[in-house]
Amino acid sequence: MLKKITLITVITLLILTIKIDNAFAQVQTPGLSATVNSASIAFILICAALVFLMTPALAFFYGGFVRSHNVLNTLMMSFVAMAIIGVTWVLWGYSFAFAPGNPFIGGFEWLGLNNVGLQPSEYAPKIPHLAFMTYQGMFAIITPALISGAIAERMSFTGYSVFLVLWSIFVYSPMAHMIWGIGGLLSLSGGWGALDFAGGTVVHISSGVSAFVAAMYLKPRKSYPNKLSPPHNVPFILLGAGLLWFGWFGFNAGSALEANNLAVVAFVNTNISAAAGALTWLILEKVLRGKPTAVGGATGSVTGLVGITPAAGFVTPIAAILIGSITGFICFYAISIKHKIQIDDALDTYTIHGVGGTVGAILTGIFANTVVNPGGRNGLLFGNPDELLLEIAAITVTYFVAGFGTWIILNVVDRTVGLRVPENAELQGIDISEHGEQAYNAE
Questions:
Q1: pLDDT tens digits for range 87-125
Q2: Beta partners for 420?
Q3: pLDDT by residue (tens digit) across 228-268?
Q4: How far apart are CA 38 and CA 53, in angstroms?
Q5: Rounded to whole angstroms, what are the CA distances from 254 to 15, 86, 132, 283, 313?
Q6: Number of separate domains in the chain
Q7: What is the rounded average pLDDT of the residues 129-143?
Q8: N or C: which end of the chain has fewer CB within 10 A?
Q9: Residue 387 to residue 379: CA distance in whole angstroms
Q10: Is 360 part of a structural domain of the chain?
Q11: Residue 216: domain span
């Protein structure tokens, strides 16, 4: 049966290749279009590479937290997202996210990159359509990988892989279309006008809420909460956080979609918000717990990065400091509350990305300033309280789509290939049971 499915898949891909290659030849030009800018092409490709780096960075960040017998599985959950979404984004994900469609999801026009070539698009007039597609694909890869932090050390690799495919279709692509797609329900181009420069709702809230639902559905680890182990490799955590910080410049500055002044502002805001988040976290630890920790500094920097993501191209640098600090402060206490009510979001995905993304989106509606970005809108502090209400509406829609969609997908996967590893495998560590290898082999 598997051989038949493989053969049918290969034949289908060959047919698509012939059809789409012909279409691609019709949309490319011998030279660059008059509107395409070589500097912007180089800029966006570098930013795409930086965003791609964020997924292996996330793997190290998450991998440092888990038990040593689960580190390979944790790393692989990010790595397999690079493989699966790397293919599905080209085949259908990009079309469902950005092709002309309805207010909720894109259409079929760009399936298999049909009519996606070297000419610019409405989305980015300074770069080829193909470059825009590639850049957005890096966002599509890291977003579901974030969810893996909530279900670490207990979800089967097969179940997770199937979940990635379904979640990217039924949650990520509709959210990307509603926020960023032309004519999307919440977008600045023909929709309600919610502001999300680089993914506060599309990436962080959607993954954070989905992570919360997944953690609740899977139920706690057998070792939770009484037999939890400390992080097995703190240097991994610092390495991952540092590389995330580095890659985030591509995440936010690249969302300007060309090499211009707006990219400069987003770059500066990204750095200082991360610094403010880390500093706030370290101060809180010192004051409340007596010692600032490496894990705390790394976590705080990520909260600052999450908070500034929706606002990076809409606010001033001083506002970015406030956003990073406020987000870090709220996420610090969100994690404390999570521990008290004993929800096994294993690596704090919801409390960092869900809560941090929510706070960042709200603060965008407060601090947004058209002096920074004339293509945006003013927020509450600059005379437009309606923008704050729009941000809250976008947050509400995201919570519903991500939460309900994830619950349905988890039920489907659980009833087909299964979700949870056997109890004995979980207690012993799932690297061997799921992958047949270990991170650290005794000599």
A1: 999 999 999 999 999 999 999 999 999 999 999 999 999
A2: 155
A3: 889 999 999 999 999 999 999 999 999 999 999 999 999 99
A4: 23
A5: 34, 19, 10, 31, 10
A6: 1
A7: 98
A8: C
A9: 5
A10: yes
A11: 42-430
